[in-house]
Fold these 2 entries.
Entry 1:
Amino acid sequence: MSFVRGLKCKECGHRAGVVPEHVCPECFGPFEVEYDYDAMMGRVTRASIERGPRSLWRYRDLLPISGEPRCGSHSGFTPLRRAKRLAAELGVKELWIKDDSCNYPTFSYKERVVSVAITKAIEFGFDVVGCASTGNLANSVAAHAAEAGLRCYVMIPHDLEQGKVVGSLVFGPTVVRIKGNYDDVNRLCTEIADKHGWAIVNVNLRPYYTEGAKTFGFEIAEQLGWRLPQHTVAPTAGGTILPKIFKAYEEFIRLQIVDDNKPRIYSAQAAGCNPVVTAIHAGTDIIEPQKPRTIAKSIAIGNPADGYYVCQTVQKCGGWGESATDAEIIDAIKLLGRTEGTFTEPAGGTTLACAIKLIQSGRIPRDESIVVSITGNGLKTIEAVEPALDFGTPIDSKLTAFDALLEEIKGRADIEERPLVGV
Ligand SMILES: *Cc1c(COP(=O)(O)O)cnc(C)c1O
Ligand SMILES: [Zn+2]
């Protein structure tokens, strides 16, 4: 049973069937999946969801697949953790970490979009899948394609972190490294999808792919005990996840699964690539493309496909945006590690650093519920934090050497760490 009606243009409302297309032929606007919410009423409920598997597929009634899931049977349903020590450090009352750094199998939020896109690709009869990626998407597409037995081509900028490249190669896809940045890679992929007729998950399957991101928001609401947080901070790269978290909240409100508490959402970007936050601060939804220069490579998209919809969503709900410098990103990665035992990549450091700024500027009140979206794992991007960590000098395997080191460390104790971002 599927509640999908078909595709509908977000701009002019032109409708199409369930087809592997992403651009409206009438106005060139983006297609989005349309559902029959009236038919869902009373059938998609807390109880129906709770009966589902402990994966993102527990929300399948709200996802655009018609048959059984074909991959990702262990993806999603990642922890939502109460971050008490971090909350104390930041001086806020109720802070939560939605932690996709442990998403299975490739440790990022991308398992969500890819599980849906590859299932859909199989339903459409594609036998080759691919993507344009800043790394995490490539890892996830390669892994899920291997699981589903599809041929796979991933296209990435040439200068990604080792962990991201190895983390794709190991699954046996064709990895094509391209001289240029993500925006160049993406442009090429559009031509490849047209010419070769492949399922490029974030190009021609984009309407289905992006729907998978809603599961991040569904999980937050369910794991909070079927309520919405008042404030959600989410990173922005191409602009998929933020509007889709908000869409998830809206769908749950519409289906009377949660109460409407007028949730607000905030966009986080690196200062070295913040076209969307710049537009939000200027009070516009016109995005000026940028040339990225930041350690937060996974979210370094200078010309975000859905940046416009991030602005719209943020402005509609009364949210805001912030950006963080590379130094602030590294400090936030270390802060999250030190207070909560979670190791995130620079995207998560960006989100936390921006959340801190939003709290300090009073945009997010200290006594309201806050969710910080952690979307990727730090073990894939060791290069980013390594220079900011002290490896120490090796010692002899003698107790005297250990005790001497201990004395030296105690002597250093008052020269505490560099001050953390605004703490
Ligand atoms: C892809 C990605 C995002 C968000 O990207 P959107 O295109 O805006 O959905 C955030 N964090 C990480 C780690 C990612 O890989
Ligand atoms: Zn249109």
Note: The CA atoms of residues 191 and 218 lie 34 Å apart.
Entry 2:
Amino acid sequence: MAVVSRGFRGRPGDTHHKLPPGQYETTDFPVLSAGPTPRVDRDAWEFTIRTETGARHSWDWAQFMALPSQTPTVDLHCVTKWSKFATEWQGVSLDVLLEDVETAAEFALVHSYGGYTTNLPLEDLLDGKAWIAYRYDGEELAPEHGGPARLLVPHLYLWKSAKWVRGIHLLLEDEPGFWESAGYHDYGDPWREQRYQGD
Ligand SMILES: Nc1nc2c(c(=O)[nH]1)N[C@H]1C(S)=C(S)[C@@H](COP(=O)(O)O)O[C@H]1N2
Ligand SMILES: [Mo]
């Protein structure tokens, strides 16, 4: 017997994907950037985690490429209401990057080349929930989608997935990022439709 639940979309031969409230499915990959696309040379690229004590852990591109990577397939949910199912990425898990980082911090403020920032609880970067992604759909990540590398944190609205990521500051107190300062929700869970402050 076929069981069809409201909110579930099936595709032949595919697993079932679920659409969060208020979202629609698209098969395009829209580009949403608050400013111009920064061109970041892999030779000059560096990714730094800074803790609340000021301790820094940095990787240049070669060191970053030498880390073990994963190939997550995930659904994306943008606050502008499009969702894209089963996107295929390659990236380094934040579990790997945070492994040797000693911290008492509970919050993270993610920084991008170009100045964009976004905040989230540190625990949302852990336990297989987030990656620094550098390949998409079998290709190098295109500059407009955040290449050389972007944060990928698919369980939250896509504005949390900072493109052109350059570092993460670990903080004892939560600090709002770019969209969070402009009225968007501090956490941004698509399943609870946390689009704006007060949702
Ligand atoms: N650095 C940076 N990262 C960013 C943004 C941005 O403007 N600058 N936009 C965010 C928003 S609102 C969304 S929906 C996604 C869009 O990612 P895409 O352009 O790859 O679809 O990137 C997020 N990451
Ligand atoms: Mo967005």
Note: Residues 1-13 have pLDDT under 50 and may be disordered.
